[in-house]
Amino acid sequence: MKKLNQNLVSVIASTLLLTLGMVAHGDPGAKKPLPDALLEVCTKLTVISPARYALAYIDVDADSVFDSSVDLLIAEITETSGDDVLSVGDTITTSSYPTSMAPCPDLGDSECPEVGSFLVRTVTIPKDWVVYDKTGADGERTVSVAAPSKKIEYSWFSATGFAEEYREDAWRYVWDSSVFLDNHAILGPLDELVVSRFSPSRPQTEVAPIDQASPHDDPFLNVEIY
Ligand SMILES: [Ca+2]
Ligand SMILES: [Ca+2]
């Protein structure tokens, strides 16, 4: 995450220097006085994406790289609290989810018919929630965000040496969980997909549990922790 923030600072610095440099050298395209130039810089800063701490997505073109113009966001956490570390006040954003293990039959084509939509798309992590980012002995990274007593929990698990998983759980009278899991190293190689309409992001479509034995890194789910 530090690397990502350093990149952000680098972009900000470059933009600032470029704009001020144009003003200082009387560039004919930069006739605005300095305050307007600074305003222009501030406008540019607002469109730079905030740092991202965890990401789950459907890799529509199966290239293992998240491109928001092609791939489909499942869920992410981004920096919105202003402290540049994963913390309360950051934002969970959810969007789409796979309803089958092969939601995009024509890879490379952005058509991806077997997807559902979450109804609750944005959560600013409240002050009394617990946030953690840990690395297990097996190298697996986990980012998890939970309400008190874990009555609501969102979790991202990275792939290294274990499973790749995004899940969200809610406790009312029973556990209502939506689970997207690719390549469980101990149980499998096993992929699992189950969607409950009462998990925290309120998926529009329920999906009964689907399992498949697959040793591959399948594109219905990719998880990155930064
Ligand atoms: Ca991709
Ligand atoms: Ca933060």
From the structure above, extract its key features.
226 residues; alpha+beta; 2 domains; 7-stranded antiparallel sheet; 5-stranded antiparallel sheet; 2 helices; globular; binds calcium ion
Question: What do these coordinates show?
Answer:
The chain is globular, with a radius of gyration of 20 Å. The longest helix is centred in the N-terminal third of the chain and has 23 residues, at 2-24. It has two domains: 2-46; 52-225, no CATH class. It has 226 residues and is an alpha+beta fold. It is built from two helices and 14 strands. The protein has a seven-stranded antiparallel β-sheet with strand order 7-8-9-10-11-12-13, with no helix packed on it. Helix 1 runs antiparallel to helix 2 (34-46). Strand 11 (175-184) and strand 12 (190-195) form a beta hairpin. Residues 1-32 have low confidence and may be disordered. The chain has helices at residues 2-24, 34-46; strands at 52-58, 72-78, 91-94, 96-98, 115-117, 122-124, 130-135, 141-146, 152-157, 164-171, 175-184, 190-195, 207-213, 222-225. The chain binds calcium ion (2 copies). One calcium ion (CA) binds at residues 59, 61, 63, 65-67, 70-71.
